[in-house]
Amino acid sequence: MKTEVVLDVIDGIPLSFYSSTGIFSKRKVDVGTRALLENLVIPERGIVADVGCGYGPVGIFLALKNPSLKVIMLDIDPNAVKLSKKNVEINGVSSRVTVMKSDVLSAVNEKLDAIFSNPPLSKGVDFLKKFAKCANDKIKEDGFLEIVVYRGEENVKKEFSPYFPSINVIKRVKGYSIILIKKK
After folding, report:
1. What is the pTM assigned to this prediction?
2. Nearest alpha-carbon partner for 133 in 163, 157, 156
């Protein structure tokens, strides 16, 4: 398996990652993830999750941006989990970041203040259905989700609206929509 190195600076924060074959956007932080990171709504403190973390840009960025957060990074792919663990170490955030293999949020036992994701659109609407239900079960009453999708606003609204009354697009960038989803 060929290892790739991804170096970037987003919102003034230098990032360094190892990636490899079979991992989404293995050579650079993709446009959707970058748009999400540049428009994050970050809680002041608490526990947050990065669902579908890949090699870790969202979760690691959150940990670097706000040292008061505990971050849980989740992915179903064992290779992504392995890479994320390595990247958490090299970015110096291992004391506040946990990386786990998980189908959506199944490995999470705590209630979350926020959930962030660039969901795997290749998994389609079935993933969004499962994600909406799991997020509803795991998020605190005053918590929120912030996700980025490529031309998928309507699917997000359809699948999340049975659980979350507040769904707003906060930014659109090159076909990507950054969506803020709240219970209240």
Report:
1. 0.92
2. 163
